[in-house]
Design a protein that fits this description.
The structure holds two protein chains of two kinds. By secondary structure, chain A is an all-alpha fold. Chain A has one domain. Chain A contains five helices and no strands. By secondary structure, chain B is mainly alpha-helical. Chain B is 63% helix and 0% strand. Chain B is built from five helices and no strands. Classes of the chains: A mainly alpha, B mainly alpha.
């Protein structure tokens, strides 16, 4: 039998870490846009975001298997989902946007993208917080 | 004809992919959930007292431990639930209706079976 709880716990850390790291790289690259390192940081953030989106698929699939298909739930479980679904949707959308547009972004487009990256990071962090609360409360998944 | 900028194409592709993946996830999960429910229904056996209390323990940690403490021995604003001297029916009433200005009602959150599970768990704390 597959230990979905352990698998989900392990897999969720990849999108959390990679997305936060990618957002940080993007902001640093915008701040240091006159230096040559800015381009390297944009490449790192691109791959970070792509792998975060791919890893989020694993996290979502293992989560669905763990909850036996319950997409909402109650209490902390519901709070976890209130943040997970918008975070997942935004993360996938941003990754595809970046994959298609690459470097071809206007100044306005870039700022919208950065704000959405911050929002996605916040949503993922909040989802992770309530996921952790579920785990620490000892109640597990209802 | 005016060409659509690449970044707009990216936004459209991102939004479409995101919506499609969410719809697929929700649909697959709904199917999986009904499959699990069907399987559970087929092999359903009444909950034993032990299983009922175990279920109640989960519900307790989800909704009660925050105020009444992880060990149910009371918190800053909520009393201990150890060695309760009230009947199961009274516990059910308190869980379902709450106490004005002191404890929220769980009537909408927990049905009769959940309430019974919580009571079964609370009784194990005697």
């Amino acid at each position: 039998m597959i230990p979905w709880d352990k698998l989900h716990g392990a897999m969720t850390h990849f999108p959390i870490a990679l997305l936060s790291f990618s957002t940080a790289c993007d902001f640093v690259s915008v701040t240091l846009n006159k230096l040559s390192i800015a381009r390297d940081l944009r490449i790192v953030s691109f791959y970070g975001l792509t792998f975060a989106a791919l890893a989020s698929l694993g996290a979502v699939i293992s989560g669905i298997a763990l909850t036996k298909g319950d997409l909402w739930g109650r209490g902390n479980f519901a709070w976890h989902h209130r943040f997970v679904w918008p975070a997942f949707a935004l993360l996938v959308a941003l990754a595809v946007w970046r994959l298609v547009a690459r470097e071809a972004m206007s100044r306005t487009g870039l700022w919208v993208y950065l704000i959405l990256m911050l929002l996605a990071s916040g949503l993922v962090a909040a989802a992770g917080y309530f996921g952790g609360e579920l785990l620490l409360s000892g109640g597990g998944v209802p | 004809m005016r060409r659509i900028p690449l970044e707009i194409k990216g936004v459209l592709a991102g939004a479409t992919t995101s919506i499609l993946i969410l719809v697929a996830t929700f649909a697959a999960s709904g199917t999986y959930r009904s499959h699990v429910a069907q399987e559970t229904e087929t092999g359903r056996t009444p909950l034993t007292a032990e299983n009922l209390a175990a279920k109640g323990r989960g519900l307790f940690f989800q909704s009660c431990a925050h105020c009444h403490g992880q060990d149910a021995d009371g918190g800053e604003d909520a009393p201990s639930l150890l060695k309760l001297q009230i009947s199961g029916a009274h516990m059910a009433l308190l869980i379902q209706s709450g106490i004005k200005d002191e404890m929220p009602s769980f009537g909408k959150k927990y049905d009769a079976q959940d309430t019974a599970a919580l009571i079964a768990y609370l009784k194990t704390l005697h």
